[in-house]
């Protein structure tokens, strides 16, 4: 259907890591691996923030009468 809107990437506009040779197409596995790495980094950051939150909550609980 010509009226249907789609979203996508333009090979020239993405990091070289995910663009195929010549930057004419995208490498799907490059995108998947880049996104997987980002999710891993976010999960690590979330775990660290959860630990910090737990420590702060414990400190606050000790301060309350």
Q: Your description of this structure?
A:
- The protein has one helix and no strands.
- The protein has 65 residues and is mostly helical.
- The longest helix is centred in the C-terminal third of the chain and has 36 residues, at 28-63.
- It starts with 27 loop residues before the first helix and ends with a helix.
H/E series = H
What is the count of β-strands?
0
- How much is the average pLDDT? 85
Structural class: mainly alpha
Provide a count of the helices. Answer: 1
In the predicted model, the low-confidence regions spanning at least 5 consecutive residues are none
- Percentage of residues assigned to helices: 55-70%
- Biggest sheet character: none
Tell me the Rg in angstroms.
21 Å
**What is the beta-strand fraction?**
under 5%
Report the principal-axis shape.
Answer: elongated
Q: Please report the distance between the alpha carbons of the first and last residues.
A: 66 Å
């Amino acid at each position: 259907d010509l009226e249907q809107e789609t979203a996508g990437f333009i090979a020239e506009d993405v990091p070289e890591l995910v663009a195929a040779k010549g930057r004419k197409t995208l490498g799907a596995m490059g995108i998947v691996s880049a996104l997987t790495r980002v999710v891993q980094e976010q999960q690590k950051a979330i775990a660290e923030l959860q630990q910090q939150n737990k420590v702060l909550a414990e400190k606050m609980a000790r301060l309350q009468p």
